Amino acid sequence: MRKMSNKTKIIAIASLMLLIALTMPMINAQTAAITFDPTSAEQYDSVTVEGTGFAATSTVGIGLGAEVTVEAEAHQITNLVADPIYDEELGVDKYGPFGGTTDHRPVKPGSVYIFYDVDGVTSEYFDNGDGTLNTESTYAIGPFVNYVTGECGRYSTADWSGFEDPWVYITYTYYDRGVHN
Questions:
Q1: Tens digit of pLDDT for each residue in 60-81?
Q2: DSSP track, the chain
Q3: What is the model's pTM?
Q4: What are the angstrom distances between the C-alpha of 65 and each of 12, 60, 74, 90, 150?
Q5: Residues 64, 47: Cα–Cα separation, whole Å
């Protein structure tokens, strides 16, 4: 039996590592999906629910019934922490999170609009449909929405401990039959 040279071993290991690296995005790109059988039923009927593409520890919310839109649900922001958290990824100090939790859930992805009024300074946030929010605010860091729990908010580069009356107004759509998770 012939021995493998060091060069051949290195090429084989590098090829294997490249193959693994190239297949990881395909594994992570699997689309999450939930299916129901039957797709419609009467109250108290049995329905089989199957899901694919979720991580083992993912919390999943299933909204049932008609969609209901809530306009400008008001939440006073009370967690005005004075001590920042250092964000190693961004290399900045951040304060927060500042936000609220919707009164109803699950929240329909893509339906959230948030308006902040922090002692007269206002900013808007628009739902990207993937748990992140888009904004033009230069103070916002990592605006987010959790469709299952209804938690939404943002971090800030500014210290909010001196503000007197900050509010967040959340517009969103939920399902009128509650949530099962």
A1: 677 778 899 999 999 999 888 7
A2: -PPPPHHHHHHHHHHHHHHHHHHHHHHHTPPPEEEEESSS--TT---EEEEES--TT----EE-S-EEEEEEEEEE------S-EEETTTTEEEEEEEEEE-SS-SBPTT--EEEEEETTEEEEEEE-SSSBEE---SSEEEEEE-TTT-EEEEEESS--TT-S-EEEEEEEEEETT-EE-
A3: 0.70
A4: 55, 17, 24, 41, 18
A5: 12
